[in-house]
Amino acid sequence: MGRRTTxxxxxxxxxxxxxxxxxxxxxxxxxxxxxxxxxxxxxAVTATQAGYTAGMFLLVPLGDRxxxxxxxxxxxxxxxxxxxxxxxxxxxxxxxxxxxxxxLTTVAAQVVGPLAAGLVAADRRGAVLGTLLSGSIGGMLLAxxxxxxxxxxxxxxxxxxxxxxxxxCLAGVLARAVPATTPSSRQPYPAxxxxxxxxxxxxxxxxxxxxxxxxxxxxxxxVWTSLALLLTGPSYxxxxxxLGLLALVGGGTMLCTPLAGRLVDRHxxxxxSLVCMLGVLLSAAVLTAGTLGGAPGLAALVAGTLLLDIAxxxxxxxxxxxxxxxxxxxxxxxxxAYMTCAYLGGSAGSWLGVRAYGRVGWWGVCALVTLLTGFxxxxxxxxxxxxxPRATGSRPxxxxxDQPVGPRADRP
Length: 412
Known about the structure:
0% strand
């Protein structure tokens, strides 16, 4: 896989992830255009996110059963149709239904990762995964700006319609540019769905990767959920737009994840995971200075959130490199288990973060991040001690096979 294909797949990740986030910027415009409340209009955003979670579980495992190129093209075409339907929806219920369909099918980024992992040599896998993650981060950061600016000028329907055209054009490009691949599995669909929990039970490295990302992503979500309360509270007295401006600082992460991928290729995922967890702990210490308020506190929040973003996303590169080396024939199913655990951790972190802030304040949120990451770090140190000085974080890739995923499915 050449550089041009890598960049094209990174753009695919950006567009697919952006479809989840740009609706957040047009909620007030939807409310005004459809003559409803903002709370009701936000159901479109909720439906998109719920659909995305369902798509990860229901559709991503098919990446092992279907040819990647045709699967990606079909997913993007369905997403484009859903976006067109959302942009033309005359009522809120129809918009919510179309948004759920968009979320369900815009899982291309989770299909691209396993595809790319199978197209590159093992010593380049981390660098490529880092580039793809940069695309996803860029899509997440730019989507809200795209949706808000276009919606303000042309109305709330414009972002949906422009995104639909972009997605359909991208589908046409991918149909010609993505290399052909052979499906790695012939298992029926019910068996693919049942594979994720079985893989969690039988693959220790998958379990630890899921644990690492769930704990770190929980801390990450706790910080960003509580940060709005801190910035708009008495310590700073800023408007809600301040959180959006602070989020743009995370753009620096786009430059760091490819570097993290190269470090994974050179030193192994375990070494990078260790550094990333230490980085998260350091970010929690820096973020505690946010209680100072004023310019010093704001500077600490900027530095701390940037370090937290870089450490969390770089850790994701290491974790995905670790799990993709486990079962070449089951990469999509491995990714399904991994991403589901990560999102469950993020959801729990948001809930815990708000409650920690309500009871203890910003100190409580920083302590929560330290506690969660410290637990993951302790587990990681145990794993490193058990593997000895030559620990690499993943066992050698097994030969491609097509056996049911089970306790002995990875043995001849």
